[in-house]
Amino acid sequence: MGLIYWWLMPSQSSWSMAFWLLLALLLGGGLNVAVFLMLLKQRLRCCEHDIETRLANLADCLVRHADSTVVPHDTSRSPVTRLDDMVAAVEG
To answer: Mind listing the UniProt keywords for this protein, alphabetically (predicted)?
Structure first.
């Protein structure tokens, strides 16, 4: 990368200017990636909260309309495990 800059730069330009430009570009790119990852994390957190809320509502509805074999929701287990338990309780 440095050889490309050296070849493209006019002789009166200094290496310090190229260094600061490269540093600014790397910093800007790093900030873009960091913001993207933070937004992705927030969106996944929102989706997870929605799924947890819907699973809790489903469990409450099943407890009201079915017999007492439906296990109440336990937030310490994964959503997939909880959903499997609810389906198994409803099926038999």
So the answer is: Membrane, Transmembrane, Transmembrane helix
